[in-house]
Design a protein that fits this description.
Distance between the termini: 9 Å
Largest sheet: 5 strands, parallel
Bound molecules: adenosine monophosphate
Strand order of the largest sheet: 2-3-1-4-7
Number of strands: 7
Number of helices: 9
Oligomer: single chain
Helix content: 40-55%
Length: 206
């Protein structure tokens, strides 16, 4: 089964995708993580994506992102796509090279999204995520590898505003695009409850 997980930034998509991946043995493919890895490796595509677009809360152009995902998904089955598609042209392209069975849409109120993004801290080493629903045991240290946690540049308040505008104008129309396979999940709940709701849906669809 191939799943797309949609939702505004800060709604817990990545956290839920990770859990779904473990519970249902699906590969978690996150375009944000792919771009972050490219940047870390000082790959020119990753550096350009960061400097020109993502640093300011903008999307990387469709042609670049589509090519990247197409290469990544080649001969793959059984995955959960997190952060892609984010525009209608991306969804149309995806339909050409993959078969998506189900789309989960996790939505949360604007207030909660802003709060979650502002409080989010990530481990630069093992990528563990902390914030409103999960605080580290030791202040600002990763529970897993004890690395100092950081705030993502694009989680700074001035950038959050722009990311939400980008979501509303470019990504939200996907809800209508996928209207035949979308299942809405209430993201205004704690992580555990959101995951329970998702499992109910996925167990029913199996
Ligand atoms: P994320 O962690 O998913 O918020 O992704 C971090 C950044 O990578 C985004 O702000 C975009 O600049 C870029 N990015 C990730 N996925 C996409 C996508 N599907 N289309 C365009 N840009 C993307």
């Amino acid at each position: 089964m191939n799943i797309v997980i949609l939702g505004p930034p800060g709604t817990g998509k990545g956290t839920q995708a990770e859990r779904i991946s473990k519970e249902y043995q699906l590969e978690h493919i996150s375009t944000g993580d792919i771009f972050r890895q490219l940047l870390k490796d000082k790959d020119s595509l990753g550096v350009e994506a960061y400097e020109k677009y993502w640093k300011d809360g903008n999307l990387v152009p469709d042609d670049i992102t589509i090519e990247l995902v197409k290469k990544h998904l080649k001969n793959k089955e059984n995955y959960i796509l997190d952060g892609f598609p984010r525009t209608i042209p991306q969804a149309e392209a995806l339909d050409q090279f993959a078969k998506i069975d189900l789309v989960l849409n996790i939505d949360s109120s604007d207030e909660l999204i802003k709060e979650r993004l502002t409080l989010r801290r990530v481990c630069p080493k093992c990528k563990d995520v902390y914030g409103k629903d999960k605080q580290p045991k030791e202040e600002n240290k990763c529970d897993i590898c004890q690395t100092e946690l950081i705030q993502r540049e694009d989680d700074k308040p001035e950038i959050i505003k722009d990311r939400l505008v980008v979501y509303r104008t470019q990504t939200k129309p996907l809800i209508n695009y996928y209207k035949d396979k979308i299942i809405n999940i209430n993201g205004n709940q704690n992580i555990e409850k959101v995951f329970e709701d998702i499992k109910e849906v996925l167990n029913d669809s199996n």
